[in-house]
Amino acid sequence: MTELPRSSRPATPAFLDLGERLRQRGQLEAAATVTVVGLGHYPTLAAGHDLLGRIRADQGNDAAAEEAWRAAIACEPAHVGALKGLAFLAFRAHDFAAAERHLETAVARAPHDASLLAALDRVRAARPSAPVDESLRLDDPASGMLLCDADGMRLSGGLGQDRTAAAADAAAAETTGLLREAVRSARLLGLGGVKHLVVETADARLAVVPVRPGAALLAVRGITTPVGRLVATAQRSAAVAERWIEGLQ
Length: 249
Known about the structure:
Blueprint: H1 14-24, H2 28-41, H3 46-58, H4 62-75, H5 80-92, H6 96-109, H7 114-126, E1 145-148, E2 154-157, H8 165-188, E3 197-200, E4 204-212, E5 215-222, H9 227-248
Antiparallel strand pairs: 1-2, 1-5, 3-4, 4-5
């Protein structure tokens, strides 16, 4: 079949909703038939190939699921659903390195997706030989980890090598203010709590994670650091900081 002319296409093809509803009801053969027929009309629709991948995975056909998810990636290189699917298959095959790569790419596309970040943490925790490439030492100014209290005072750490203590003190004050405003905005908008913030500059990526009410941890890394890795490192460091603060009390 040929692809429908762009002017005659609905915004969301009906087969996506129908196929998903059939999948959720466990009617997998019917869901697959609907989706394959739909893809005959929309062969470059990544969401359609992603749906087919989920159906094939539910059927226990990993090879067909992988083929469908790779077709989705061919249509849309950073399709989050397809990347999650490929990561799932890699994880199940104990190819943790591939699972981590797929999830890091997905997190770069959707850096605030809590389910992706949690999946990335699970994959990294499952890697028996995963290198510990991020220091969790909060007392080293060169570590790029900065802990500040509710008043914006630097408690420990710094911004990394070649960054002065004065710069770290200024960053601590800005970090606390940034987190306070984010919490206030999220409350006003009814978005719930703030788990982390990600800021990107011309040459760095920064993550801010709440440590306790009002306090915060700032992680600073290079611009090439994957967002998922940055956030995961900041969250682990925040847990260390929490225990450190409790020990001071």
